[in-house]
Write a sequence for this structure.
């Protein structure tokens, strides 16, 4: 068992590690903190453990961090659920003030958004069915012929569009749907952002 005071220190160290090591996106004209106006946080709750739903409640690392940020700024937090593909548009059209929904930094996104310092490192993962585990041990062929499941407008989707433009993509609303596409053999691979 961990002593209560050590537990607090461990939790603080973990939070600091996360805070120092995904990305917070701010609109260029974030209202001043003194106004006490609500901080409208754009979320797409399909990225556990960062932001997802348990029943009807929003939970996850970024949900907790948004609440801490709102407290720090002296602004109440209002979570605005936005489909993933519409997050950038919602921010740029001022329907949200910030995106906290496991968005990774890409060069294309840098043209339309201002990013904070990364606070979490993400990578890409490819999930395959057990019977295909040996097929991709040495990487991926230059010409992937089998369909690939992706979550639209994610970094994994952009990677497949860029590197395998002729490969059929199977669009999935979330990770569970990507796994289901594999199980039902609608796709041979599922590419997704992976919190490391």
């Amino acid at each position: 068992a961990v002593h209560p005071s050590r537990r607090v220190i461990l939790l603080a160290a973990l939070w600091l590690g996360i805070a120092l090591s995904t990305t917070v996106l701010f609109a260029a004209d974030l209202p001043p903190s003194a106004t006490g106006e609500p901080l409208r946080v754009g979320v797409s709750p399909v990225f556990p453990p960062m932001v997802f739903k348990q029943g009807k409640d929003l939970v996850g690392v970024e949900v907790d961090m948004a609440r801490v940020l709102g407290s720090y700024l002296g602004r109440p937090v209002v979570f605005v659920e936005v489909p993933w593909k519409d997050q950038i548009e919602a921010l740029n059209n001022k329907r949200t003030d910030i995106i906290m929904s496991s968005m990774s930094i890409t060069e294309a996104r840098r043209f339309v958004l201002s990013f904070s310092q990364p606070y979490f490192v993400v990578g890409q993962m490819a999930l395959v069915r057990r019977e295909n585990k040996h097929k991709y041990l040495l990487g991926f062929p230059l010409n992937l012929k089998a369909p690939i499941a992706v979550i639209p407008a994610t970094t994994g989707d952009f990677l497949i569009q860029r590197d395998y433009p002729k490969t059929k993509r199977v669009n999935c609303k979330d990770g569970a749907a990507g796994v289901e596409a594999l199980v039902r053999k609608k796709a041979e691979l599922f590419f997704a952002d992976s919190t490391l």
In short: The helical segments are 4-20, 61-73, 87-92, 107-110, 155-163, 175-183. Residues 131 and 196 are 25 Å apart (CA to CA).
